[in-house]
């Protein structure tokens, strides 16, 4: 995964995966305005995807479609007022906060940072599960699933960390996530379904 450079093969695969249901691409000027407003540079190939290919889609991934770049899922907590994309996404490995020794109420600010710092939300998987693309922090360029009980990186099994060879397509970023979906694979290993 190279979050700083889009590869032609990745972009071709993304074009092939989104043949229907795509919203018009934003164009480079709009992407640069978004980045300047938020103090970040979007990771590739997502950056080129929203600029040149598609800014959201009614078809997956995820279950309810791919959100446009500047959008949040309906009913997002606080309307997104606490979101800060320049603050680093705080995780580099999975965290199930319901297993934390301190009560959730004591670690709520840390939990909120997982949902609100350093990521764009790609969409809603249902049941309070949201896919995030990390745009700032140690996991920049990786896809994470944030849900009621914790946060885990996208991978063949959610016990793997970003960047390990266990990813089914060798890529824990946007292109690998889309490729996994386009191949009809489940997001979850059999134990988690």
UniProtKB/TrEMBL annotation:
Domain Knr4/Smi1-like stretches: 30-149
Pfam families per UniProt: SMI1_KNR4
Alphabetized InterPro entries for the sequence: Knr4/Smi1-like_dom
Name of the protein in question: SMI1/KNR4 family protein
Organism, as annotated: Streptacidiphilus alkalitolerans
Lineage, opening ranks: Bacteria, Bacillati, Actinomycetota, Actinomycetes, Kitasatosporales
């Amino acid at each position: 995964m190279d979050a700083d450079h889009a590869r032609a093969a990745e972009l071709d695969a993304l074009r092939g995966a989104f043949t229907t249901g795509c919203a018009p691409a934003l164009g480079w000027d709009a992407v640069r305005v978004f980045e300047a407003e938020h103090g970040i540079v979007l990771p590739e190939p997502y950056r080129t995807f929203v600029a040149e290919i598609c800014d959201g889609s009614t078809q997956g991934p995820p279950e309810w479609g791919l959100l446009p770049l500047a959008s949040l899922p309906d009913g997002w907590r606080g309307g997104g007022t606490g979101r800060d994309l320049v603050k680093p996404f705080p995780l580099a490995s999975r965290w199930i906060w319901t297993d934390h020794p301190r009560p959730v109420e004591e670690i709520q600010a840390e939990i909120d940072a997982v949902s609100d710092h350093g990521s764009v939300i790609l969409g809603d998987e249902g049941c309070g599960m949201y896919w995030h693309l990390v745009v700032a922090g140690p996991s920049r360029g990786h896809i994470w699933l944030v849900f009621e009980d914790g946060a885990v990186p996208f991978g063949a099994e959610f016990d793997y960390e970003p960047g390990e060879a266990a990813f089914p397509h060798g890529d824990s970023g946007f292109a690998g996530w889309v490729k996994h979906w386009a191949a009809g694979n489940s997001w979850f290993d059999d134990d988690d379904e």
